[in-house]
Predict the structure.
Amino acid sequence: MLNKKDQKIIRQMMRHIRTFPLLDSEIRQFERDLTGMALEAEKRREDFEEILDMTPTEFCDELLCSIGGRKTPGGRRLLKGAGIYYQLTGLIGTALLSLVFLISLFLTIVIPSELGLEGVILLFVAIIGLIFFGAFLLFGNIAERNCGTTEKSAQLVNNGKILLVTAVIFDIVVTLYMIFNAGASVRHFNYKLPLLMQVIIFFSCYMPAILYIIGAKRNLPREYVLNEL
């Protein structure tokens, strides 16, 4: 009988193995083999995790690659990369908007003049921005932390869709602001700057959200994909 620590490691390894496109019989065989390895380690009074000489998930990757030529699902890497990007974006955005929030708070409370009205507007913008960047931080952290956990993939797909909708809203707001702030009609408006902004927004907002969704979808459990079909 395996001890609790080794049972936990085996469960972790099996969760990881189930992310690969394997037959049920193959999965059961891997479980028997890994359990046998752990039992042998216990008999020799060796630490199962130490004899793996790497993390349990890395060992599974090596095992599947050497035996069946299976590769780690690419969605895992996309999710991790997108997660890190959103965390960095969220940190930078939160830091900047926190400064704007403090300045607008100062203008609103301390200076009772026309600047106070501007402070209220800035305060509103800062609060909305902090909510957006807070979502970036949260979803980015969830993606990086759960990029190897298939049970969370369906939730991550939904998170990616929220990020994509956020990018669309941001795009619309920026475009409308640039058009109306220019003081020109739409027909005579110079589109060079907005087009440049569209390129920037695509690569900084749309592309990460799309990669987030693709990564989550590619990392969905085999059973979930089969049910969808």
Notes: Confidence is low (pLDDT under 50) at residues 224-229. Residues 74-109 form the longest helix (36 residues). The CA atoms of residues 24 and 227 lie 15 Å apart.
